[in-house]
Every structure is written in structure tokens, then in C-alpha cells.
Amino acid sequence: MKLCVIGLGYIGLPTAVMFANSGCDVTGVDTSEKVINILESGGVHIEEDGLNDIVRNCFDSGKLRVSTKPVAADVYIIAVPTPNACDKCLSCDIRMVIAACKEILPYLSKNNTVIVESTVAPRTLEDYIKPVFEKAGYIIGKTLYLAHCPERVLPGRILYEMRYNNRIVGGITKQCTEHAAKVYETFVEGKIIKTDAKTAEIAKCMENTYRDVNIALANELAKVCGELDINCLEAIRIANEHPRVNILSPGPGVGGHCLAVDPYFIYSKMPNLAKLIKTGRDINSTMPYYVVEKTVELVEGIEKPKIVAFGVTYKGNIDDTRESPAIKIIELLKADGFQVEVYDPHVREKAKQTPYQIVKQSDLILILTDHDEFKEIDYNMVAGLMRRPYVFDTRNIIEDDVYSSITLINYGNLFEFV
Ligand code: SAJ
Predict the structure, then answer these.
(1) Span 16-64, pLDDT tens digits
(2) 323 CA distance to ligand 1 middle (Å)
(3) What is the residue-wise DSSP string for 169-197?
(4) Is 225 in the active site?
(5) Which of 198, 204, 269, 350 is catalytic?
(6) CA 166, 171, 172: angle at the middle one, nearest 5?
(7) CB of 120 within 8 A of CB of 87?
(8) Which residues contact 324 (CB under 8 A, 6 or more apart)?
């Protein structure tokens, strides 16, 4: 089977190598010459466990090639970004998907399968993608097979989850579903769940919306408990002892290219109905302002305070900074005139100093990302280097009572300090 994967980002590149590693002839396509150059010169432009080695193996075996232009293939997989559009409801911007579809048209032939992996709003394939191919003369389900097969992998575990997660395959017609399912049977060991395109689209958006709304609930609880002088972390731990309750963790807000983006794809389709989804988004996207407000109170009275932010990525142990609440918090603090130094061992330009160097003479460490490296720091040693050893741990990664030399503040005891 010959495959052409359009878009070599966090999903496209691992997808391309999974197929190449299973013996398919894969051409990975990216419009960025920089990406192609990095890959061709033996590197990988994203941080993901095990990815570098498997990319190299696929190049060495001759099963993977990369290019800035598509080639003729049996199957086309489109994995390009679908950001929020700049409209009132932040709808799904499918311009890159449409452009990719148009780009493959000259290479397409009868009986090819086209799979959109990019997350899209419900009804996108039916209403916007199908017409592109119909205009070119194809009959969907008869001369061309079109399906939506969203990915569900967790950054940091992509290669494992791509193989073992259950996979949704939603065709425009039943024939489309069957053709697309055959493609994934090449390497997927999870269940292949067959449905139609629009159900696949909304199911994928809803998975991330479900998580976003649940995180919003935890964040709201943190604020409520803060006002009522209640330790919310303990309240969550106790509530979660109930067999059917699982309250998630409050944090500095929600980032990434999924949870902070996809819920709007549903909301923008039905803004009058999708009220809970919008409220959840509002709670999570305003958490950085809450963190900034509390941080400002924590350094009140200190002349020219130095704040050190630990972490810029949107979550722990990855290098991805897309939609990161940490970045928003740092920007807001700097805009307020605060001196903020940033340390992140996963982001090269933020790792030039060691944590022990960067905290010197600082007044507050603000933990914004749950990297393992931050758990391994000796905070008693750090305390000796700071001007005032305060640590505001918005991720609750430092255990209470372990470090006697620091003043540890988290959502459990924040109300005692502000
Ligand atoms: N977060 C919290 N509190 C929590 C859990 C997470 O504040 O209790 C924050 C994280 O720090 C991060 C954000 O939420 O900023 C999102 O992180 P995540 O680990 O929940 O999810 P993503 O965005 O890395 O990946 C999600 C996953 N979806 C679900 O778990 C439903 C993944 O399976 C999807 O494939 C991915 O979105 C995607 O590509 O859509």
C-alpha cells in the first residue's frame, strides 16, 4: 500500500512512521522546507519519546520519504492543523484541510481513499470536504472513499497510543468506512470503531470537551474553596473516594491544541444550545488571570520582586507550548511590570541556566507545568538561594511537609496567604 501523509506535525509524523514501520511505502509531505530539511538531515522537529529512533529506522529501510509536494498513492491521510477561526464563536478554521484536499487533487486517481485525521467541527466532511472531490468528478463511496478518522493519542505517549488505542473510523458512506478501516488495520491493535463521518467528528470533539468541562469544574471548585477558606485539594481527594466520582485537578488553566480548541468547534455550531461547553471554556481560559491576581498578592510589599516561572509548556514532560496557560501568565505578569525569569528543561531557550542558578535572589517560584524535573529539585537547597523562599505550586506537584525551608502555597492553602 502506498500512502501519502499530508502534514508532518505531532500527529502526521508519528502516523507516517507507524505505517512505514508496518511495511507501507509512505511519503510524508509538509509545506515547511525547514521541517523537511530537519527530517532529511537526521533530526526530528518535535519532542516525543522514541520518535527519533523510529523515524531513522523508517528512512534507513527506505519505507519513508519526505517532500514538500504530494505524490501518487493509494491512500491520502490529511493531518494538518485546524485552529480556531478569528470569528465570534471561535469556529473551526478548515482552510488548511481544504488546501490539502485541493493540493492532492492532481495526484488522485479512481478508487483512492482520502482520510481526514485533523479534528474538525461536526458535519465538516459532509458539507465542505465532500464537495471539493465531487467538483473534481469523483463519486464518494463509488470512485473515491472519504472518511474522518480522528486521532486520540496523548502527547508523550503517542507511539504507544497510536497502536493500542481504539480508533474511530467514520466514512461518508459504508463503503468509505470499510476502505478506511482496512487502512488502519495495518497497524492498529485497538478496536476499530466504525461509524459515519459526522458521528466521528462530534465524538472526537466531545471527548476533549468532556475533559475540558471536567477540568473547569475542578478549577471552579478551587476558586470557591479559596473564598470559603477550605482546602480544595483535600476536598477533591475525599470526594474521589466515592466509587463513581473522579474530580480532576485544578491548575493554571488548560492548554494544548485540543482541549483549549475543540470545544469551540461544537459551541460555534450551536451557540444557543452549547451553553455548558462555553462556560467550561470561559472558566479554563480565564484561570491564568486568577493565577496572576493571586501571584501579585503573594509578592505584595516586596520591592522589585523577582518571580521565577517553572515551565512554559502546556503540560508536563513535553515540549509543546501551544495555547499554554503558562505563557499567558508570564505575559500578563510582564505586562504588569514584574520581573519574570523562566525555566523549562524541555524548551531549549528556557533551559540555559540550571534551576539553582535562575532562582538566585528571587522572591517567588511559580510552578506552572508538571514536569518530572520540577519534582526532583531540592527545594531546601533552592530556599537558601532565594531572597524569600515562597513557592506557589499551581500544579500541586510538591508534597506538603517534605521541604521545611520553603513556604509552599498551592490551591489547598492559598487562602491563608492572600
Ligand atoms: N489539565 C488540568 N487538570 C487535569 C488534567 C489536565 O488542568 O486534571 C490540563 C493539562 O495541564 C493541559 C490540558 O489540561 O494543560 C490538557 O491536557 P490533557 O493531558 O488533558 O490532554 P491533551 O490536550 O494533551 O490531549 C487530549 C487527550 N484527550 C483526552 O484525554 C480526552 C488526547 O487523548 C487527545 O488525543 C488529544 O487531546 C487530541 O489530540 O485531541
Answers:
(1) 999 999 999 999 999 999 999 999 998 999 889 899 999 999 999 999 9
(2) 12
(3) EEESSHHHHHHHHHHHTTT--S-EEEEEH
(4) no
(5) 204
(6) 155
(7) no
(8) 255, 256, 312, 313, 314, 369
Closest CA to ligand 1's atom 29: 208
Q: Please count the other Cβ atoms lying within 10 Å of the Cβ belonging to residue 106.
A: 10
Strands 167-171, 144-148: pairing is antiparallel
- For the Cβ of 307 lying below 6 angstroms from any atom of ligand 1, the answer is no
Please give the distance, rounded to the nearest whole angstrom, from the Cα atom of residue 257 to the centre of ligand 1.
Answer: 9
**Ligand 1 centroid distance, CA of 259 (Å):** 6
Atom index in ligand 1 nearest the CA of residue 251 equals: 7
Q: Is 204 a catalytic residue?
A: yes
pLDDT digits (tens, 9 = 90+) for 149-189: 999 999 889 999 999 999 999 999 999 999 999 999 999 99
User: Nine-digit cell at 393?
Assistant: 505550586
Enter the C-alpha cell of residue 258. 485540543
Confidence (pTM): 0.95
Strand partners, 144: 112, 140
